[in-house]
Amino acid sequence: MKFLWSTLNVKNLDESIEFYSEILNLKVTRKFEAGNGTSIAFLGDGETQIELISSNNSDISIGEDISWGFEVDSLEDTIEFLKKKNIAIIGEPIKPNPHIQFLYIKDPNGMKIQLVENIK
Fold first, then answer.
1. How far apart (Å, rounded) are the C-alpha atoms in residues 119 and 90?
2. Residue 60: inside a domain, yes or no?
3. Is the separation of the CB atoms in 114 and 68 below 8 Å?
4. Do 49 and 5 sit in the same domain of this protein?
5. Is residue 61 situated within a structural domain?
6. Among 26, 106, 110, 116, which has the minimal tally of Cβ within 10 Å of its Cβ?
7. What number of other Cβ atoms are within 10 A of residue 101's Cβ?
8. CB 47 within 8 A of CB 56
9. pTM above 0.70, yes or no
């Protein structure tokens, strides 16, 4: 068995695709209309992808107890990039041990995104 994707219901599919493409550098691998006003897009070029679903139901509820983690090469460079894109950083960067540091941002739907640098 392997993990294929994680699904996120979104308010605006195009806005969410723009965020995940521009900020996290994920590529759209599939995008289609599923009927009844529902649009679906898959992003990511690895084994595991993100599925974004937009439907007529604009009532989206994303809990605070979940986040998606993405590795970055340099947290310092990522902070500068986020500032240029006007993406708010939640709190301060965290360095729980000498080998890792991370920070959180939120996507346009309120999903927490953890950006992690593995320190070599």
1. 21
2. no
3. yes
4. yes
5. no
6. 110
7. 18
8. no
9. yes
Count Cα neighbours of 115 within 13 Å in the Cβ-side half-sphere. 26
CB contact burial 20-54 (16+ within 10 A = b; e otherwise): beebbebeeeeeeeeeeeebbbbbbeeeebbbbbb
Q: Are residues 78 and 101 in the same domain?
A: yes
pLDDT, tens digit (0-9, with 9 covering 90-100), for 95-112: 999 999 999 999 999 999
CATH label of the domain that carries residue 93: 3.10.180.10
Q: Dihedrals φ, ψ of 53, to 5°?
A: -125, 130
Range of the structural domain that residue 42 is part of: 1-55
15: enclosing H helix or E strand? helix 13-22
SS3 assignment, position 60: coil
**Each residue's pLDDT tens digit, 21-79:** 999 999 999 999 998 889 999 999 888 999 999 998 667 888 888 999 999 999 999 99
Q: Are residues 48 and 86 in the same domain?
A: no
Q: Are 7 and 37 within one domain?
A: yes
